[in-house]
Design brief:
eight-stranded parallel β-sheet; 1 helix; mainly beta; 402 residues; 32 strands; nine-stranded parallel β-sheet; globular
Amino acid sequence: SPQSHTVDVVLTKNLPSRLTGFEFRGDSSVTAGNDNGVVYFRGMEGMTARFRLDHCKFTGLHGLPLLFRDLIGVVDHCTVDTVGTQGAQVYHNSWGGGNFGHGSWADYPYWGSDKFLFIEDCTFTNSGTDRAAIDCYEGARVVVRYSTFNDAPISAHGTEAQGRGAKQLEIYDNVFTASSPRGASQVRSGTILVHDNVYNNFTKGIDLKAYRQFVRKGTWGISSGTNVWDVNNSVMGALERGTHTGADSATTLTDSNKNWNPDEWETVVSGKGFTYVLRNMTQNRQSVITSNAATRIFYFQDAPPMRFNRGDTYEIWKVVTTLDQPGQGKSDLLSGLPALPKKWPHNVLEPCYSWNNKDEYGNEVDLHTVEGSIQEGQDYYNRTRKPNYAPYIYPHPLTTAN
């Protein structure tokens, strides 16, 4: 059935567990899928640390092949061929006895240790729509290394719709190949260390995004400059107000009553370290300002884009830091949804780093962003190795253990 798991494995804390040598094939008569997980592994009583899945094949599945919750260990020498679906999803929602990823966010990073789910020496291929090979949620801590990805990027959801976003990713010594030019996916929360990868036919590196600055989702609300979860400058109130005087259904704001300086509201190139958000108060939408002229403001185009009709009112607000945005690390412990206590949880700075990632021509493939609150040289560093970092031993010791 497309609504159930073919294999549902509940693992006891720290007891050795292994699944090896199986092949899972899709039924050609089943074309509808879901994200329930054809093979579902979940830990009980906290993290399950001695888990291994190896030498398995997942072929022609329309549903999500692999779903992992509350496990650390290793997935190795597996082949995952999907048809328009993700290859694997990873959650650490109950880390440290917490819920919704709160426990993982309240813990230390443990870079270069075994306190991650490792995916190594695997091959992921997506022959359908553009979906991630591996997607990470709710406090996920994942290392992806020495693997091959064909039209199958790696991504991380942020603190947006439900629980907290992914916490930490290490991605290194992989080969990514795209059949047509594309970007290298996105990371929407936490910290990524990405190094020594090869990107074939990619137009740009990984996007660092804070979705709540331009998308209204879930229990957290939009990052509007007044949201209690974020660091704002709300004491100053709206920095600008006015009325759209341009055409209806416009994807740029026009206010003929203004005379702004060029790029007065731009924050990325100028490195201001915060974001100006443009709020359409009539339509209850907002987005991130990317540039401006004397009477026009240009902003990031989400799908569907924010539009202005003649007479719509707008405001401009300042967001200093969005909750769990890329480059943010360990926080105070929260609980539940909506989370309590309802205030900024004092995330520490835990920057993203990218180094020695090359395209097929030998050019560097860098991290980038369209949001000024995610600042290069503070929240992320390109062509810079993380200080005092060393990857965990390869191959993973569980691959050679009896």
